[in-house]
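User: structure tokens for this one?
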Amino acid sequence: MRAFIESIGAWTLRHIRGLGRGGRFFYAVLSKSGVGLRRFSLVRNQIHFIGNHSLSIIVVSGLFVGFVLGLQGYYTLNRYGSEDSLGELVALGLMRELGPVLTALLFAGRAGTSLTAEIGLMKAGEQLSAMEMMAIDPIERVIMPRFFAGIIAMPLLAALFSSIGIIGSWVVGVKMIGIDNGAFWSQMQGAVELTQDVGNGVLKSIVFGVAATFIALYQGYTANPTPEGVARATTRSVVVASLTVLGLDFILTAFMFGTGG
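Assistant:
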């Protein structure tokens, strides 16, 4: 029994220390953001790397999610004679929940693992140590541009995902099933509010971008400088980022739509 309690205590202390190191790392990134953002070309290059290389999976996933929502939404609404509300159902579902959440999960699996592996390999190859020897701050030169690039790229990718999803549901609902085209778009325009739905969806995607990008960079920066350490950090990055996104989604949804949504 004593050994069990000691193991729980050791596990708790280990994770508390991890939270402390993560908080210090987050503060270091933010404290040097003003200096680093003066060289916006570094951020721009990382936006291209993160966003452009994620376009294919975002577009294809958004299209097929729209197809599925169109089919499932039609069969559900048809029971109540409300199939003309398919556009409203799909738009609200994508903008409020599915767009930001699925984009963040795909981002963690595609761009997050790439960032973790890249930083981890730079650490294993002693490139970060070499920067410090040359009086170059690796957080300012390497971490900060990737951090802000992820924050900027995530809302853009989420908006693209939702837009492609709506087009996919339109193809299924209007072109394949035969729902009235005017009713599809008019119901959507009448139901979607700029602040309540679009604005909150953008806010979610920004929060998810901060969380997923920070976790990926932190895992890479603190990875053991060995091939096995980088591999474990990459796997841990996906798991932690995905669980964090889902937890944050529940909290944000409760605050945004719990009372007035």
